[in-house]
Amino acid sequence: MNRVKAFDTIAILDFGSQYTQLIARRVREFKVFSEILPHDIKASDLLDRNPRGIILSGGPASVRFDKSPICDSGIFNLGIPVLGICYGMQLMSKLLGGKVHGARAREYGYAQLKIKSRNLLLGGIKSGTQVWMSHGDEVRRMPKGFKRIADTQNSSIASIADEAKGFYGVQFHPEVVHTAEGKKILKNFLFKICAAKSGWTMKSFIEDTVNAVRKEVGRDKLILGLSGGVDSSVLAVLLNKALKKNLTCIFVNNGLLRKDEAKRVINTFKKHYRMNLKYVDATAVFLKNLKGITDPEKKRKIIGREFIRVFEKAAKKLGGVKFLGQGTLYPDLIESRSSFGGPSVTIKTHHNVGGLPEKMKMRLVEPFKYLFKDEVRLVGRELKLPDDIIYRQPFPGPGLAVRIIGKITRDRLSILREADAIIIDEIKTAGLYRKIWQSFGVLLPIKTVGVMGDERTYENVIAIRTVKSLDGMTADWVRLPAELIAKISNRIINEVRGVNRVVYDVSSKPPSTIEWE
Ligand code: XMP
What we know:
Elements: E1 9-14, H1 20-29, E2 33-38, H2 43-48, E3 53-56, E4 82-85, H3 87-95, E5 99-115, E6 129-141, E7 147-151, E8 159-162, E9 167-170, H4 182-193, H5 202-217, E10 221-225, H6 230-243, E11 247-253, H7 261-272, E12 277-281, H8 283-290, H9 296-318, E13 321-325, H10 330-337, H11 356-360, E14 363-365, H12 373-382, H13 387-390, H14 410-429, E15 438-452, E16 455-468, E17 476-477, H15 482-495, E18 499-504
Parallel strand pairs: 1-2, 1-3, 3-4, 4-9, 10-11, 10-13, 11-12, 13-14, 16-18
Antiparallel strand pairs: 5-6, 5-7, 7-8, 8-9, 15-16, 16-17
Helix pairs in contact: 5-6, 5-12, 6-12, 8-9, 14-15
Bound molecules: xanthosine-5'-monophosphate.
C-alpha cells in the first residue's frame, strides 16, 4: 500500500544514530508526518517525496574518515531547509566546505548552551539552557554563509546557521529528553523554518487508510492472521471498517495460548465486532509435533512451520483470496533495510507471519508500516477498541512453549496457564499491569521437595518474571513489593495443583533475555 501523501512530511536521513527513531517520533508528536530514509538516497528521489524539511541524524561514525556514510550533496541544492544533528551537522559542514576536527575535549552528557545571536531555530530558547552532548568531533571552520549561533563551554561552535538557505546545525541532541528545550527547537525548525502544517492525526490516518485499502482491495478478499495482540487486533478493526465482509480473519489456536485467550478473541471479534472470523483449533496437531521436543529453537521452528501450514490450509478453503493483511510496524521496516546495526546473530528466531506471502502469492497490505507501536495504540483508541486489548502486554508468537522449559504436555500447559493467570490477575489488581512491559510465569523442568500439611510433596517450580522495558531490546526486572510477591506465591501454591515452590527472577536483559527460552 502506498505511503500517505496528503500531509506535510519531514525526511530524516539515517546515519545510524540510536536516536533516529526518536527524531521521527518527536516530529510526529507535532502532528507532522516524518519518514526515515537511507542516508544515501539520491537528491532527485528525495525531491520526489516532496519533503518540507530534511533532518540529518547523528551517527556513530566520524566524517573525518573516508568510509563514513555521506549523503548526496545535491540535497543542499533542492531549496529545502536542512537541520543537521551532531554527525549530521558535521557532515553538512564538511560537504559545504567547512572543516571538522577531532574535538580537543570529547563532550558527553550535559552542557549549557549559550546563545550568541538571534535566529529562528533557537528563538524563544533561554541562553544557558541544558543540552545533551555526545560527540568526539567538532566543526572548527564553518562553511561560507554560516554563522555561529550558540556555544558551550567545550564547543565554541555548538550551533550554526545559514539563515538565507534555511540550513541549521546543532552539535547537541534536541530529540532526547535531557535537552531541556529540545522539543521547542524541533518545533521551531518544523513550523518557523520549514513552515510545515500539522495535519497528521490518527483520525486523518484512519480515514486515509480506509480509503486507500478500499481502493486497493476493491471487491476482492483479504485475509488477516489475528493473534489477539495489539497490532493484529487494531488492524482487524481498521480493515473491517474498510472491507466488512471482504475481510476474513483467521485465528489459529496453537494450544499454547494463555488461559481463556481463545474465548476472549472469539467474543471480542466475532460476537462484539461481528467480524468474519475463522477459528481454527489446531491444538492437537501442534502438540503432536512438539511431543518430546526440548530445544527452544526447534520448538520455535516447528511452531512457525505448523502455523504457516494451518494458515495456508484455511486460506485455501476460503478460495480466491488475493490480499494478505499484515501488522508490520515501522521499526520492523527500518531494521530490515537499515545499513547499520540490527542483530548480526540469531539470539532467538522470532516467529511471525513474515514467511507467508511469498509462498501464497498474495499481495501484502500493511497499513501500519509507517507507524510506531504507540501510534498503533492511538489508532486503536480512536477506533474505540477496549483498553484491555490496546494496553495488552506483548505475548510471543510461540506462546507458552517458550515459557515451559523442557517438554510440552497438556498437563504442564495447564499448570502454567493457571499460575500465569494468577500472576496477571494480581498484577492487575495492584494497578501495575500497564506500568510493566511483561509479567508472566515460567514452568521449570525440575521438581523440588515440599511439605503440605503433614505430607511430603515432590512437585513443580514456577518462576515469576516481571520486566520493565521500552522496546523489549533491553529490560530490567521489576522491584515488585515483597507483599505482592508473597501474595502471588501463596495463591499459586494453594490454587495450582502440582506446584509447591515459586521463585522470583531477578535478572536484567542483557545478559539474560526476557523469555527464558
Ligand atoms: P527476548 O526473550 O528475546 O524477548 O528478550 C524480547 C521480546 O520479544 C518477545 N519474543 C518473541 N515474540 N516470537 C515473538 O513474536 C518469538 O519467538 C519471541 N521470542 C521472544 C518477548 O516476549 C519480548 O517481548
